[in-house]
């Protein structure tokens, strides 16, 4: 596919008054599932399709959005129970590749080996990356007496690599000349599970601070020692209760736990705050690198554009383009069709996420409708 420059996210979402249609299906087959599940109606909602339980797992970054989506979808489509487990991106992909779930949530795209492995599960097809939301990875901290903090990529890299160990370090003080920084020991907290959030955060460090961060990016945290916890909920809880702690997690976890977040000095006109709008500015400059129905995207983690928050992720739903299980396919198309609809996307800003750009949202709906 030719690389595409994405439209600004401000055009992504229609008016919030759009209504999800009441549950109903057309052209039912003998199993009672809809053959048109996943197609959008004029109001931006989705027709219901399928029956029974739809199992999925993966990204904890999207859990707060998924909880809202599941509640709204099931209120309109009570014949389907969506069971999403926030096990982390790595575990979610592996469960999907074992054929145990209808789709997986992941904050990073599939590796070539995973695509190849998926052909054993996707009869006649393969797994594809379907972007569904974006958002900032906040760097949350707990330092008593410090309510505002600016850090840059180089300093963050040295903090998380154990090279800067106290909060009154000269490098931190230089970025915060008016702050009264204590000599408290820095307690970096990383993810203990394989995580797409870790993958995105380490990609940012490698791109924006290549001299200070020499580790390979990936889902597994590369630095030995230090504190760790499972999932975004685990690391944010650890920061909340530990003076001197710092970690990385989605903005919604910082907001819900009342955890202050770092503003990032990118070299832009002013340090950039972790907000949905600033993440949208970064995602709007992303490029589509997938081919066919695969919509993998590439972010510029080293951006210096004004008001573009650099530590941003895109969360994908992973499923088969062809060869999906016939008993869950209608529900998969119906549910993912809803999450990509105007109504589904409109709930994201209020939860601390960034909706898809209009151009990509349209491509996602086309891809979801084509699943077979």
From TrEMBL:
- Write the signal peptide boundaries: 1-24
* Top-level taxonomic group: Bacteria
Keyword check for Transport, yes or no.
yes
Which Gene Ontology cellular-component terms appear in the entry?
A: ATP-binding cassette (ABC) transporter complex
A single GO BP term for this record reads: phosphate ion transmembrane transport
| Chain ranges of the PBP domain | 51-343
Chain intervals for the UniProt region annotation (Disordered): 176-198, 215-235
Give residue spans, biased composition: Polar residues.
Answer: 187-198
Which residues are involved in binding phosphate?
59-61, 89, 107, 195-197
Alphabetized, the UniProt keywords read: Phosphate transport, Signal, Transport
Task: Please state which protein family the record places this protein in.
Answer: Belongs to the PstS family.
Name-wise, this protein is Phosphate-binding protein
- Source organism per entry reads Streptomyces smaragdinus
State the gene name recorded for this protein.
pstS3_2
């Amino acid at each position: 596919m030719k690389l595409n420059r994405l439209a600004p996210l401000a055009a992504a979402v229609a008016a919030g008054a759009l209504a999800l249609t009441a549950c109903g299906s057309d052209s039912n087959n003998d199993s009672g599932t809809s053959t048109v599940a996943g197609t959008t109606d004029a109001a931006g909602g989705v027709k219901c399709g399928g029956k029974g339980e739809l199992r999925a797992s993966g990204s904890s970054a999207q859990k707060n959005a998924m909880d809202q989506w599941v509640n709204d979808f099931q209120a309109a489509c009570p014949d389907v129970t969506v069971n999403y487990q926030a096990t982390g991106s790595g575990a979610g992909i592996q469960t999907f590749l074992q054929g145990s779930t209808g789709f997986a949530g992941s904050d990073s795209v599939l590796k070539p080996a995973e695509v190849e492995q998926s052909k054993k599960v996707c009869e006649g097809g393969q797994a594809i990356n379907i972007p569904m939301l974006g958002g900032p990875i906040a760097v949350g901290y707990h330092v008593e007496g410090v309510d505002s903090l600016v850090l840059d990529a180089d300093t963050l890299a040295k903090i998380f690599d154990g090279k800067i160990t106290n909060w009154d370090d000269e490098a931190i003080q230089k970025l915060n000349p008016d702050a009264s920084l204590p000599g408290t020991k820095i307690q970096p907290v990383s993810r203990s599970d394989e995580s797409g959030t870790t993958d995105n955060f380490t990609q940012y460090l490698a791109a924006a601070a290549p001299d200070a961060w020499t580790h390979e990016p990936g889902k597994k945290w590369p630095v030995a020692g230090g504190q760790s916890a499972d999932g975004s909920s685990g690391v944010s809880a650890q920061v909340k209760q530990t003076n001197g702690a710092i970690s990385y997690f989605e903005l919604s976890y910082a907001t819900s736990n009342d955890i202050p977040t770092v503003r990032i000095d990118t070299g832009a006109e002013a340090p950039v705050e972790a907000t949905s709008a600033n993440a949208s500015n970064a995602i709007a400059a992303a490029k589509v690198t997938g081919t066919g129905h695969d919509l993998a995207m590439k972010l510029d983690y080293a951006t210096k554009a004004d008001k573009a928050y650099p530590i941003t992720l895109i969360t994908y739903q992973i499923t088969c383009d062809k060869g999906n299980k016939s008993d869950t396919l209608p529900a998969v198309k119906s549910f993912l069709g809803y999450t990509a609809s105007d109504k589904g996307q409109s709930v994201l800003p209020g939860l601390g996420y960034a909706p898809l750009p209009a151009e990509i949202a349209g491509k996602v709906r086309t891809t979801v409708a084509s699943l077979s």
